Amino acid sequence: MDEYLDDARSEMAGVTENLKQQLGKVRTGRATPKLIESVQVTVASYGATMPMNQLATIQAPDARLLVVSPWDKTTLNDIERGIIAAGLGLNPMNDGQVIRVPVPPLTAERRNDLIRGVRATAEDAKVGVRRVRQEYNELFKTGEKDGDVSEDDLRRLLAKVQELTDQAVKAVDDLANAKIEEVQAV
Fold first, then answer.
1. Whole-number Å distance between alpha carbons of 20 and 139
2. What is the pLDDT of residues 13-58, one digit of tens each?
3. pLDDT, averaged across the chain
4. pLDDT tier for residue 186 given thresholds of 50, 70 and 90
5. CB-based contact 34:24 (threshold 8 Å)
6. Distance between CA atoms of 131 and 29, rounded to whole angstroms?
7. 85-99, pLDDT tens digit by residue?
């Protein structure tokens, strides 16, 4: 049954890793390639929708500017439309060679919206962690009913799952609080 604890640990780690990726996309007023690298771009000449990082190199030469250098210059207009359609509040400028994306400072209202979004995303991650806890608690309780797990082992396993849950929830809180501080600092 201890191998199930490793599975529970890795599933909870997966939830926190997913949260890291989602929080990386939250705009903080500071230019970072993560902000637009997963923006979906419909490329007419390819007949496909692709993430930005598969079409171009994204750089942040300073704190307020992103520069998108497409590998195929025919995709410039498609990339520009994709950035606008992403709803990030960014206004790309196409000069025929690269796309410059100025990142404006956040307004107080937008900052509060982002903080609410971060908290909601963190709460979803906590729900995911708790769902993993519930799944493994039920698995261990079923094992006890079937006679595969003793009562003492059940208590030990349930305590260990709770400990893993507490660690994962703390990690989620730490990630969310760090992102909130980052949003407030800009």
1. 28
2. 999 999 988 887 776 767 788 888 888 898 888 888 989 888 899 9
3. 89
4. low
5. yes
6. 34
7. 887 778 899 988 999
Alpha-helical (H) ranges within 25-107 are 34-37, 76-85
Q: Kindly report the number of other CB atoms within 10 A of residue 17's CB atom.
A: 14
Pick the CATH number of 2-24+107-185 from 1.10.132.20, 3.30.70.260, 3.40.50.170, 1.10.3720.10: 1.10.132.20
> Residue 94 burial by CB count (10 A; 0-12/13-18/19+): exposed, middle or buried?
middle
Q: How far apart are alpha carbons 60 and 74 in whole angstroms?
A: 22
CA 151 to chain centre: 39
Burial class of residue 55 in the structure, from the number of CB atoms within 10 Å of its CB (0-12 exposed, 13-18 middle, 19+ buried): buried
